[in-house]
Amino acid sequence: MAQAVEEWYKQMPIITRSYLTAAIVTTIGCSLDIISPYNLYLNPNLVIKHYQFWRLITNFFYFTNMDLDFLFHMFFLARYCKLLEENSFRGRTADFFYMLLFGATILTGIVLIGGMIPYVSVSFAKIIFLSNSLTFMMVYVRSKQNPFIHMSFLGLFTFTAAYLPWVLLGFSVLVGASAWVDLLGMIAGHAYYFLEDVYPRMTGRRPLKTPSFIRSLFADEPVVVARPAHVRFAPPQEEEAQQN
Prior knowledge:
By secondary structure, the protein is mainly alpha-helical. It contains twelve helices and two strands, in the order ααααααααββαααα. It has a domain of 154 residues. Strands 1-2 form a two-stranded antiparallel sheet. The longest helix has 25 residues. The protein starts with a helix and ends with a helix. InterPro entries: DER1 (IPR007599), Rhomboid-like_sf (IPR035952). May be involved in the degradation of misfolded endoplasmic reticulum (ER) luminal proteins. This is Derlin.
C-alpha cells in the first residue's frame, strides 16, 4: 500500500506535486500547532503596513482543519490540478504555473477590493484563506475545457462536466459552507477561461501570454507523439512531390 502511494506521488507532475505537498504539510503543521494559522492568513493591514508579504502566498496553502472537508478538497486538488497539468497544459508547465498565479492574483484582488465596499465588506473580511477558492478555480477551468464529459455525484445522479461547479456549489450550501468561497473560484476561473480561450478566438490576440521570465523558470520538454504502428500515410500529392 505504501509503495503504491509512493509511486502515485512520484508520478504526479511537478506543479501538482509541489502544491499538494505544501498544502498537506501546512495543514498538518497547523493541526499539530507547529505552525500558527495566524501567521498565514490574508490580512491587508499586515501586508501593507508591516510588510508581511508572505501572507499573499501562504493563505493559499492552509485548508483549515483535518476533517472530511479537508480530504474532500485534497481529492479535488490532486485530481483536477493533475488533470489540467497533464492534459490541457501538457508540456506547458510555465503556462500552468502562470494560470495559478493569475488566479491567485484575481482572488486576492477581489477580496482586497471587496473589503473596501460598504455592505459587503463584512462578508469579504471573513475570507482569510483562499486555498479552497483556488482549488475551485481549477475545477471550473477543467469543466469549461471539457464540458461534455459525463460525471456522477455520489452515485445519486449524472450530469455533464459543464455543470460540475454548480453541483459542488449547491453541495457546499447544503452542508452549511460559505457560498462566497466557491463563487470567488468560479469568477477567477471564468476570467481565465474567457481571456485564454474565448477572447483569443474572437480577436486573435492573447492577453494572458506567459511572460518570458516565468518561462525561464521551467524547462518544458517537447511532447512527442508516437507514430502508430502498421499505419500507412497517404503519399504526397504529385505537385507537392515536384516542389520538394
